[in-house]
Each structure stands twice: as C-alpha cells, then as structure tokens.
Amino acid sequence: MQPSPKIYKERFIQKFQERKEKIDDHLEKYDQIDKSNREQLFEELAFCLLTPQSKARSADQAIQLLKENNLLTQGTPEQLEPHLKSIRFHITKAKRIVEAREKFQDFEFNFDDIKELRDKIVQTFKGLGYKEASHYLRNIGHGRDLAILDRHILKNLVNMGLIEEIPKTLTPKRYFEIENTMKNFCKNNKMNMGHIDLILWSTETGEMFK
C-alpha cells in the first residue's frame, strides 16, 4: 500500500537528515570543477547530451571511450558512432556532440545569472532541454537552485503531494512552475534542489552519481 503524501514527505525529510553530510560532500565535488577549463566544461556538456533515455553510467563510460580515442574534441560523427552503441539514438547523439562542439567554441558563460544562462544553453545546443541544461549546470557547480525534472523526480514529487500528477508534456512554463514548488519545499525544510535530486536518485539507484 502506497504511503500517504504526508508520510512519504516525512520519510523523505528523514532521509535528507540522515544523508545530508554525505550529499553535501558530493555536491562540493561539482563546485571544484575548474570553470576556466573549457575542455572539461565541454566534456560535461557532451555527457548531458548522452543521458536522455540512457543510464548515467553508460553515458559516462561512452565519454571516457571517446576521450581515450581522442575523439571527443576532434572526431567526426561517423568516428564517434561506434563508441556510443550503448547509448540510445547513438547516431543522432554523435551528430549532436559534434554540432555542440562547434557552437561551444564561441559560447560565453555568465555565471552571474544562472537562469538566463540555462535559457541560453537550451537555445544554443540542440538536444539539451531544461532538464539536461539544469543537470549540466549542477555538474559544473551552478545548479543548486535548479530542478532536474526527469520521471524519477516527478514520480516522487507526486508521491509527496507536491504535484498532482506527472505532466504528459513538460512545457517550459510547467517546468518553471514545478521548479518553484520545489524551491518553496526546499526553503521550508532547509535544503536545496541539489539535495532533493541526490536523495531521490540515491533512493532509486542505490548510489550517488553525476
């Protein structure tokens, strides 16, 4: 029997209190990324391009394969494809990595306005929606106030009674509404969005991974 939203929420807060120190340590790793290292910033972008409908572990392994073969920064889509076969839609994603690499050369980061930067990322890089752009910014140390709304997160938000149902389509407007609901929940419980994401993901998968 499914627990009530109140009980589900209480259990979530308890998990947060139990894991807070470990989660904070994990979040601090993202803060340590060298923002002046363009190659590392692009690597994280390429990782987030691979994650939709694929496991994060598989995406990370694919990125490592590309790096080992000196393809991430200079390979053609055809050269990338054989190394991405563990990724869904690997042919399309190989093309998107190369397209993103070309656009990334002139891309400028303004970390003073993270929401504006997220909008710019979504508008610039094909294959990155608000979920992936939020994930990317979190992975480079600037996503503690951004929601990464995948189905796992949305399902748990329903269970906690924070939203009524998983949206059939997640428009930008609805994305921001849910994000604001999560922000209020965080504010009332002395946590941030990064905490929510890692608590729910570690509950679903048994581990914390980027």
Describe the structure in your own words.
The protein has 210 residues and is mostly helical. It has 10 helices and no strands. The chain has helices at 5-31, 38-50, 56-68, 77-80, 90-104, 114-124, 130-139, 151-159, 172-188, 193-205. Helix 2 (38-50) packs antiparallel against helix 5 (90-104). The chain starts with a helix and ends in a 5-residue tail after the last helix. The relative contact order is 0.14.
What tags apply to this protein structure?
210 residues; mainly alpha; 10 helices; 0% strand; globular
Number of strands: 0
Shape, per Cα inertia axes: globular
Measured as a percent range, the helix fraction is 55-70%
Largest sheet: none
Binned strand content: under 5%
What sequence of helices (H) and strands (E) makes up the elements?
Answer: HHHHHHHHHH
Radius of gyration (CA) equals: 18 Å
Q: Indicate the structural class.
A: mainly alpha
Count the helices. How many?
Answer: 10
Mean of pLDDT: 92
Point out poorly predicted stretches.
Answer: none
| Gap between N and C termini | 32 Å
Draw up the topology in text.
Layout: H1 5-31, H2 38-50, H3 56-68, H4 77-80, H5 90-104, H6 114-124, H7 130-139, H8 151-159, H9 172-188, H10 193-205
Helix pairs in contact: 1-10, 2-3, 2-5, 2-7, 6-7
Briefly summarize what is shown:
The chain has 210 residues and is mainly α. The protein is built from ten helices and no strands.
